[in-house]
Design brief:
Helix content is about 40%, strand content about 15%. It has about 280 residues and is an alpha/beta fold. An 8-stranded mixed sheet has the order 1-3-2-4-5-6-7-8, with helices on both faces.
């Protein structure tokens, strides 16, 4: 059973973290969201406090989709709003295509590279991070106490690494180490997103303008693949934007899961959302 926590009240909104991360990445936006939604935070298989991700010969993408769908069933969540960041955004899009989501909001979602060569850049980032984490080992507890150390850890992921507390950074480091086996499986199985999402499922794709992991040009691919989605550019934030600008991210998530948006969803729209850098 996947690890999770539930907060607040209102229409259910499931939040899914990115690869090697954990559900606590959503804490900066949790209080604002929980005022209007029942927020469900979940650790993906092989991440956080969830059991290891073991493929046992099954296709990895299919298995991940099935385990997430089973989680929704176990929690009695009938087509909740689903939002995610990076890999979590891809999980949310897959859920939308499978008919498991009332609405989908994806923050810099995985799956919109054009070729294997273009994805190789992202693959190298994560494999290098895994090698560095192995070398750091027990010194992480010291590293996270300095601004320079947190900048080293988060400089590629966020625009403002110093806003992440030492305790949270240490928890993230330990989560990254735990998720390394899942990271290898998921990187080897990575494919572009190519599924169809029914037109009656509202989709918001919000890309970080300072994304160094899945660069902003991939937002253009997403527009081509999902022309009926609402496409948003989040200014002033990095790939994992929740610490950079919690208010902006919460606004995007609330708009994407708004009942009015679900009821009146139609056609393609494009927007730009600004934030203080």
């Amino acid at each position: 059973m996947l690890a999770f926590e539930r907060h607040g009240s209102g229409e259910p909104l499931v939040l899914v973290h990115g690869i090697t991360h954990r559900r606590q990445v959503w804490y900066p936006v949790l209080d604002q969201l929980a005022e209007q939604r029942e927020v469900i935070l979940v650790d993906l298989p092989g991440h956080g406090q969830s059991p290891p991700f073991v493929a046992d010969g099954r296709p990895v993408v299919e298995l991940l989709r099935a385990q997430f769908s089973q989680f929704l069933i176990e929690q009695l969540l009938d087509r909740p709003h689903i939002a995610g960041n990076s890999l979590g955004g891809r999980v949310a899009l897959e859920a939308g295509a499978a008919g498991d989501a009332r609405s989908v909001t994806a923050l810099s979602p995985a799956g919109f590279w054009r070729t294997g060569a273009s994805f190789a850049y992202t693959r190298r980032l994560f494999t290098s991070a895994a090698a560095v984490s192995e070398r750091i080992g027990p010194r992480a507890a010291v590293l996270v106490r300095s601004r320079a150390g947190r900048t080293l850890m988060y400089g590629v992921l966020t625009s403002h690494p110093a806003r992440i507390s030492p305790d949270h950074a240490l928890g993230d480091f330990r989560a990254f180490q735990y998720a390394r086996p899942a990271l290898r499986l998921l990187l080897d199985a990575a494919t572009p997103f190519a599924d169809d999402i029914p037109c009656d499922v509202p989709v918001t794709i919000a890309w970080a303008a300072r994304d160094l992991v899945l660069p902003l040009w991939q937002a253009g691919v997403a527009r081509e693949v999902l022309p009926h989605a609402v496409h948003v550019t989040m200014r002033g934030v990095g790939h994992v934007p929740m610490f950079d600008d919690p208010a902006l991210v919460a606004e995007v998530l609330l708009r994407g899961s708004a009942p009015v948006a679900v009821a009146g969803h139609q056609g393609a729209r494009t927007a730009a959302t600004s934030a203080t850098a």
